[in-house]
């Protein structure tokens, strides 16, 4: 009977002992990982399997944002998959305001808002690792992918002089009112204003293209599990059709730009 009692007691205690052992193993595994991270911090080495990054950038003719997923191939190499959305403006654009009428400021002669959406792959190569945990890691990125140019027509709100009483109407360059669209003195007389953000999305046009990109990235993050970096680089985009942006200027298919971006994210 006593033997049976001890057997039952041992069986009952087995799950508890197993759970304690599993918990102990997890603590030991966690301790080893912390020690490894501390060692990497001291040596300045960045090692990871993947990272996720969000970023914002300023381009010489616009601004934008991007989302990036990285997959490590080795200590020195990684593949970067990136989705980039931006707004590009023409360097000759000038905003005008009419002191006699309140409303969105007019950009005279603007034909389209231009939004490049890029999806691509880049090869990342480590050039210089951190000398210590407060150092800077330098990588070179190069690659490319597909680009889709979204063209949202620019509408101008003016008074319609053919109706009594006067009513506001929206015109654009491709409409029958294209002559009025390009007459700055008449637009001022009609107290023209620019469009609201919601205007023109129903008339969106798509122009396919491709792009190439090269950049240097400086990661100054204090902790290796956190991405804090600045990137400077150059992109070249080519579209199947010329992109009309502004009246009295020649539309073009090729766009070459310099940019600087700031990014934040995590590694695993």
SSE arrangement:
Blueprint (H helix, E strand, L loop, with lengths): L1 H42 L6 E10 L2 E11 L4 E12 L6 E2 L9 E2 L4 E17 L8 E17 L2 E5 L6 E5 L6 H4 L2 H6 L15 E15 L6 E18 L8 E16 L1
Antiparallel strand pairs: 1-2, 1-12, 2-3, 3-6, 4-5, 6-7, 7-10, 8-9, 10-11, 11-12
What does this molecule look like?
- The protein is of the alpha+beta class.
- It has a domain at 48-90 and 106-150 and 200-267: Porin, CATH 2.40.160.20.
- Helices cover 19% and strands 49% of the residues.
- It is built from 3 helices and 12 strands; from the N terminus they run αβββββββββααβββ.
- The protein has an 8-stranded antiparallel β-barrel with strand order 1-2-3-6-7-10-11-12. Strands 4-5 form a two-stranded antiparallel ribbon. The chain has a two-stranded antiparallel ribbon with strand order 8-9.
- Strand 8 and strand 9 form a beta hairpin.
- The longest helix has 42 residues, at 2-43.
- The radius of gyration is 29 Å and the shape is elongated.
- The mean pLDDT is 81.
